[in-house]
Amino acid sequence: MRILLTNDDGYLASGIRAVFTALKNAGHEVVMVAPERNSSGAGQSIAVYNPISITKVEDDVYFVTSTPADSVRLGLQVVYGNEDNYPDLIISGVNLGENLGEDVLYSGTVGAAREGALHNIPALAFSTNGVRGGELHNKFIHLESAARVVSDLVARVEKNLAALPKVFVWNINIPNLPYNQIKGYETTRLGLRPIHHPLMEQDTPRHTKIYWQGFANDGENYELGTDLAVFAAQERVSVTPLELLPTDYEQMPFVDAITN
């Protein structure tokens, strides 16, 4: 397949590099267009008042001085040129850190995939978690395994492309395991965790206050069938199909009733 590969960790991140190599080795025609710098939390934001640029740094690898969504937009316009030459698939990731539940609202990884879908290209957003606790806390020691999952799912999509919708967005979370210990896939819906912990306050040497984002608030019991529950088990790959536009159709009659 012809694939545009992007992420929100930046073009030098180990996750996207592992996927780039795996997809190339699988015979796909891959072009990486990713942010110059880490853009985690950028969502689907774009630069409005700042000019942006795209730079080729090696064969089939470009960086963009903006967000993940802008990387997709500029990659399609500059590298691919026109709709007749667009890639078959957008892949975003693999992200260094899970994207679960409400994370999809903030995630640049998911935002880039959604941007691809707005251009009528199917898109997959991949994330994986690091080690929890111990000396290797938050180390990503199974990226080759995660990249194999990406390659495997791309092959499944390619094989069944005619049966799939023309455009789709899937959010995929891969457990932190060796490939041979992963027990397949599970289709999930988004879960919802308790609200994040408060922002952490810190005093600067100049006697001003700054704030760091609080950590995610991990719950204890997650509903079966959610991405949160599958992630907590750390056994299977969760695959959550996402709506492109978030209209709440069930509320429309109530809105109509009180406004007419």
Helix share, percent? 25-40%
> Got a strand count?
11
pLDDT < 50 stretches: none
CATH architecture: 3-Layer(aba) Sandwich
Total count of domains: 1
Structural class: alpha/beta
In CATH, the topology is named Stationary-phase Survival Protein Sure Homolog, Chain: A
Question: What is the residue-averaged pLDDT?
Answer: 95
Largest sheet: 9 strands, mixed
How would you name the CATH homologous superfamily? Survival protein SurE-like phosphatase/nucleotidase
Choose one word for the global shape: globular
Features:
two-stranded antiparallel sheet; globular; Stationary-phase Survival Protein Sure Homolog, Chain: A; alpha/beta; 260 residues; nine-stranded mixed β-sheet
What does this structure look like?
Helices cover 28% and strands 22% of the residues. With 260 residues, the chain is an alpha/beta fold. The mean pLDDT is 95. It has 7 helices and 11 strands. A 9-stranded mixed β-sheet has the order 3-4-2-1-5-6-7-11-8, sandwiched between helices. It has one domain (2-259): 3-Layer(aba) Sandwich (Stationary-phase Survival Protein Sure Homolog, Chain: A).
